[in-house]
Design goal:
alpha/beta, Rossmann fold, 2 domains, 13 strands, binds 1,4-dihydronicotinamide adenine dinucleotide, about 300 residues, L-2-Hydroxyisocaproate Dehydrogenase, Chain A, domain 2, single chain
């Protein structure tokens, strides 16, 4: 069973994509808002009925119902509301994630855990610490969403098929994210060999800033994150061992420990099966380091 905790916009969409991709026979949507997960489940089941897909979606307000889950996604929490500081949001969501993960420990202690709640990297670290799970079992979704945006800008700049684009985004899921233009390829050709330096810089900046633009225009990002969650789940359930950026606890990789941040990882049935260490140049390392500092500062602020 796949459990998605937080049946809001992103949780509902993650359930939609997971069901359409038939990633499990049963998907559970859990939320504290009464009626919301049940209504969302009904709506999804009606869609699946017409599609002829035998995946059952259930909605619940009872954490106990996640018993037996193989994968639990945590996408519960608040977005930033008017008058709320970044720090207010950090503290609110840290307390939501702690409470939710306490329940995962109680009812689904064999599951793989995919944190999504923002700010993603501090929440992934809190989920890792609170759960006490082995680190391969806790891997947050943030970089996969950044990657989908990076690939879209590469597609727009080159006019090449999206299927021909291979790339990676690492680092903090936030302003210090690191779209690795140097490592991107299109049909096997290095991106820096087919677009100008100015265009590369533009793609790099646009990837970083586009989330804010979507939020300004439509209030939230929904389909791309919902789909990115389902892509990580698919990699696990099909044991594909594809390399994906996930926010996971470092134990010496990239020179850091005791912090969760986006790194390229081989994802399979055991979760994070290997972290790939890329040779970063000085400029790339600077962005990565800035991200780590930012995540560590956030964790410090939460605990102060
Ligand atoms: P939303 O407001 O539509 O849904 C959040 C849901 O969480 C609500 O239904 C609420 O009732 C529920 N919730 C709150 N506390 C809960 C608890 N203790 N137990 C169970 N459910 C609880 O928000 P949306 O747009 O779905 O975003 C959810 C989170 O995901 C936010 O923190 C957002 O910033 C984050 N996000 C992360 C992305 C990433 O790439 N990592 C991308 C997009 C959103």
């Amino acid at each position: 069973m796949i459990t998605i905790i937080g049946a809001g916009k992103v949780g509902g969409d993650a359930a939609l994509f997971s069901a359409l991709k038939r990633l499990d026979d049963q998907i559970l949507l859990l939320d504290i808002a009464e009626g919301l997960p049940q209504g969302e489940a009904m709506d999804l089941n009606h869609m699946l009925s017409e599609q002829g897909i035998d995946v059952e979606v259930k909605g619940s307000n009872n954490y106990e119902d996640m018993k037996g889950s193989d994968i639990v996604v945590v996408v519960a929490g608040s977005g930033r509301k008017p008058g709320m500081t970044r720090m207010d949001l950090l503290k609110i969501n840290a307390s939501v994630v702690t409470k939710v993960v306490d329940n995962i420990k109680k009812y689904a202690d064999n599951a793989l855990l995919i944190p999504v709640t923002n700010p993603l990297d501090p929440m992934a670290q809190i989920a890792f610490k609170t759960s006490g799970f082995e680190r391969n079992r806790v891997f947050g979704m943030g970089g996969m969403l950044d990657l989908s945006r990076f690939k879209q800008f590469i597609h727009e700049a080159t006019g090449k098929s999206r299927k021909e684009i291979d790339a990676i985004v690492i680092g903090e899921h936030g302003e210090n994210m690191l779209p690795l233009t140097r490592f991107a390829t299109v049909s096997g050709n290095p991106l820096p060999s087919i677009v100008s330096k100015e265009k590369l810089d533009e793609i790099f900046q646009d990837t970083k800033s586009v989330a804010a633009e979507v939020i300004k225009l439509k209030g939230a990002t929904v389909h791309a994150p919902g789909n990115a969650i389902s892509s990580i789940i698919e990699n696990v359930v099909k044991d594909k061992k594809q390399v994906m950026p996930v926010s996971t606890n470092l134990a010496g990789e990239y020179g850091y420990s005791d912090v969760s941040i986006g790194v390229p990882a081989v994802i399979g049935k055991n979760g994070v099966e290997k972290i790939n260490e890329l040779e970063l140049n000085d400029e790339e390392k600077e962005w990565f380091d800035k991200g780590v500092t930012s995540v560590k500062n956030a964790l410090g602020e939460i605990s102060s």
